[in-house]
Amino acid sequence: MLNVRWSLRFALLLVFGSAGAQADTNPNQERADRFLALVNSAYQAISTVEANAIWDASTDVSPVHDAAAETASRARAAFMGNPTLIKETKTLLLLRKDLNATTTRQLERLILISAEGPMTNPSLTRARIAAETAQASTLNSFEFKLHGKPVTVNEIDNLLATSVDLAERRAVWEASKESGKALKEGLVKLRDLRNGVAQEMGFNDYFALQVAGYGMTTEEMVQLNNEFMQVLRPLYLHLHTWAKHELAKKFNQPVPNRIPAHWINNRWSQEWDGLVAAADLEKFFKNAAPEWIAKVSEDFYVGLGFPALPQSFWDKSDLFPVPAGSTRKKNTHASAWHLDLENDLRSLQSIESNSWWFNTNHHEFGHIYYFMAYTRPEVPPLLRTGANPAFHEGFGELTALASAQVPYLKSLGVLPADFVADETAFLLSNALGTGIPFIFWASGTMTHWEADIYANQLPPAQWNARWWHYVREFQGIEPPSARSEEWCDAATKTHINDTPAYYYSYAIAQVFKFQLHDYIARHILHQPPQSCNYAGNKAVGDFFRGIMEKGADTDWRTLLKEVTGEELSTRAMVEYYAPLLAWLEEQNRGRKIGWE
Ligand code: X8Z
Ligand code: ZN
What we know:
The chain is mainly alpha-helical. The chain has helices at 2-17, 27-59, 63-80, 83-94, 101-114, 122-141, 153-162, 166-176, 178-200, 206-212, 218-251, 282-285, 290-303, 311-316, 355-374, 389-403, 406-412, 423-454, 463-475, 494-498, 504-525, 538-548, 556-564, 571-587; strands at 144-146, 149-151, 259-260, 335-338, 345-348, 477-478.
């Protein structure tokens, strides 16, 4: 709190102290400059206080930390949603013809930030903050149980990755769905409160508010995601067919029409790992210490010419699972944090010795280095974020893709120098792992379900039926048994609770990632996209930096065109996996393709 008060006073001095100093600029630009100097300074100070409180609440769930987080969020809303601030922002936006582009971008972003907690309706905003805090607390402290005994999320994932006993897999999968029951009531409340704050600021609903960050409407965003699926569907149907035959063999079962959810290693069937023996890297990661996994992604970026992470990153991050026997509860989903919008960068993870955490850590460090790149005096705090959210996720995913390349794994010593990779197996494993099924989950199930609950007001009594309708329709997956409305299986996914109406960003990030990767492989590395090594290449680092250091002080479409020469497009993704399609057609000859 002291920080906030001090900073506000400092900002006011700046604003009034500099009056008249720039008499030669146009008066509207000058008015906007003064306003934004105040807002940026306060935004940074208040966000820092809030982020610290939420960090404590996420890494050590307790009523005291929850209360502090709620108070900090209220303080933030008191300023960022202040009616006078909103009015001035709207007034200045009407004068945009007199304002420079950086100013307009800050004002537009301010509208989106204010809309998260508009104090034109204080009781609504307070109710939302209370409900968000309570939901995060339930989510972060939920204790899963298997056969009546507590089981961690890593244990659930490890069992799904290794068990070949279908009865056991089903018990584990069902255990992983228990949290949805506990989270449904809070999510129902939050749906209305989130829509309420967005509507208070003139948006149709909360989904519309989120996609406004892309300059898009809900219909345009859903349409874009449908287009991704339309292009990738032939490949998906072949992968699905190949996978279900492999799984039926593995579990000694008849080939199903749709794949039972508990047959797949991921709780939501979003990634289909572990299906390709010749590309299975687990044995090479068994001895990779979690500390080494955390460190190696920093080396990746340093090799590209980026600075080392500040020591505070290592001191303050929470990278490893809670030790056995500790009663501390923390969020178990990986995340990256930019707490003060300066140098206080942290990551929250539960890293273990396996390839999944290796990839995930590289993803998180993509975010961390993005934070570092745009933390410069030229980028005002309001614009210290990605060109759009998918750019942020895209660098995370691009780093994860680069980290999965065979030459890189050899250079790290994870794979032996004489390892001979079966290229088709690696491409197939990659397509199944993070590539293609993910799009049908992200663009299909997640995006359509969230659009339904926010934009289309889907009644809560239909939530689970609609969820499984989409899982069946888009993903070709079915539950092991009927899932009634007693359950809320969507709410078992972290983002549904704490990063709402955002998940299409991961689908766009996948598509964007392949565009960047294709450009880097062909034009900078001059290596095949399916097998190349970024490590140690400063030109690749310069390419990354050229995008990252702009933050949100750019138009994402223009930037994408500038750096890759093309619009957002699935071209590079389709080309990357093209060698697979012919191989799959051969493997699937005589089989019924898909599930319709
Ligand atoms: O949530 C994440 C990251 C944190 S931004 C680990 N991802 C999505 C997920 O886990 O569902 C990365 C890819 C998809
Ligand atoms: Zn991410």
